[in-house]
Design goal:
By secondary structure, the chain is mostly helical. Helix 3 packs across helix 9 and helix 6 runs antiparallel to helix 9.
Length: 251
């Protein structure tokens, strides 16, 4: 088994061994959001013609869960290794920065997609959910998971203690995911806030993912996918640079 596959296997086991915490709990949280919001707003709000609010909400919640859990996977793994000191066993190996990056990001993406699938399957009994363009949905799921996996690595490298990591998650990741059109269409916002929403890359991930289900979106999916791809390339290059130079790892 190569170093890359060993690290990937270790990262997959790390979240799968505690699946009740890392998979089942976020699925349950998303279901609770859905039950509350759909109970209050179903029949009163119609975002897309012919699409009920409950159906509209499911892809947004699934993608939000995917993004948050992809970030949590890589960030928590790295900060735990730094705090406990076992990061030295990773640094002593001949793994290249690229292999290290890919193993962490791939594991984070797979955890996010696992939670996302769990949310969709767990809500199937509530309403019928079409899947008009599955490849579009898959592309945004992989792209979004990879971006948040890489962002989790950046946060894990930067943070020196769990308090800093919690601040990164609570003050950056959570607000960006909640204000990205999960619960509404940005067309329902005033012009100023619509402009602000377009600056949020998380909005394009969720809007494009939702397009895969309904074939309708706030912005063209090709534009969203291009923005997601650019963000992924830039963030990957930045993260690789940090790993290659040993930022807060070797010094």
């Amino acid at each position: 088994m190569s170093g890359f596959s060993t690290l990937l296997y270790k990262e997959l086991l790390r979240f799968w061994k505690v699946a009740f915490q890392t998979v089942v709990a976020p699925v349950l949280t998303a279901l609770l959001y859905l039950l509350i919001f759909s109970h209050v707003l179903e029949g009163r709000v119609e975002i897309y013609p012919g699409v009920g609010y409950t159906a509209f909400l499911i892809p947004g919640l699934a993608m939000m869960s995917l993004l948050q859990n992809a970030f949590a996977n890589s960030s928590s793994s790295l900060i735990q290794s730094k705090v406990t000191g076992n990061i030295v066993f990773l640094l002593l190996t001949p793994l290249t920065p690229g292999a290290t990056f890919l193993a962490y990001v791939l594991a984070a993406t797979l955890r996010g997609i696992t939670v996302c699938v769990g949310v969709v399957l767990g809500t199937m009994w509530l309403t019928q959910l079409p899947l008009v363009h599955p490849l579009w949905a898959l592309a945004f799921a992989i792209g979004g998971g990879a971006i948040l996996g890489a962002l989790g690595l950046v946060a894990g490298l930067w943070a020196d203690k769990f308090d800093q990591m919690a601040a990164f998650q609570n003050f950056i990741i959570v607000p960006l995911t909640f204000l990205s059109g999960v619960f509404y269409s940005i067309h329902s916002l005033p012009a100023f806030w619509q402009g602000i929403s377009h600056l949020n890359p998380f909005f394009y991930m969720i809007d494009g993912f939702r397009f895969g289900f309904f074939g309708m979106s706030d912005v063209p999916p090709a534009k969203s996918l291009a923005i997601v791809a650019v963000c992924l390339v830039l963030l990957s290059a930045f993260t690789l640079h940090l790993i290659r130079t040993g930022y807060k790892l070797r010094h």
